[in-house]
Amino acid sequence: MPTLTEEDVFTFEQLSDSAKDKARQWMRDCEMQDFDTEFMFEDFGLAAGILGIELNQTQNGTFDIRWSGFSSQGDGASFVGSYSNAPGASVKIREDYPEETGLHAIADGLTALQVGYRLSCGKFISASITQDDNHYCHARTMDICVSEGEDEDVPFDGDGETRLLKLMRDFADWMYKSLEEEWDYRLSDECIDEYLKDGDYEFDEDGELV
């Protein structure tokens, strides 16, 4: 039985199972309203840099990553920026992200594309990455413009451009998957219980915060 204090309050661990459920829902609602992605965006920027992707920044100084989630049709992530060759990307991405096989595949695909283009044209590929102006922000709203320098169009076959666009979209999808996994973890009973146990919260016997 939980021990009733003089103030008639309980710690989370002292609550009944039903009261714990109510306390969890309160904390879960707080997490849903305050889903902080800043540290994740910083990590996305690091991974992007290894791959040769430079993410644009907004006027607020944050990366121009657009996303919505996680249960509606059209949810996803996209970004605005540029891409250029990144020597050693396949090795570096495996060193820094050994478990992220999706990033490994993107790095390998970009390396193969750059090597093939270099051998055939004597140049490396660079491109700008844009996002359509509409109310969706998933990866399929992204497009690319391949260029040499600032103005001159590079002769780049349709298959190569399609492959490059797919790899940029794959990176956007990797970001979205990471966001979704973090969201699911933060709302899990395991994570919520840790917050409630370590946060010195006090509840009444029904699980209402006091």
Protein architecture, described:
- The protein is built from 6 helices and 7 strands; from the N terminus they run ααββββααβββαα.
- It is an alpha+beta fold and 210 residues long.
- The strands form 2 sheets. It has a 5-stranded antiparallel sheet. A two-stranded antiparallel sheet has the order 2-3.
- The chain starts with 16 loop residues before the first helix and ends in a 12-residue tail after the last helix.
- Helix 1 (17-33) packs across helix 6 (189-198), helix 3 (89-96) runs antiparallel to helix 4 (101-121) and helix 4 packs antiparallel against helix 5.
- The protein has helices at 17-33, 38-51, 89-96, 101-121, 158-186, 189-198, and strands spanning 53-55, 65-68, 76-79, 81-83, 126-131, 142-148, 152-153.
- The mean pLDDT is 90.
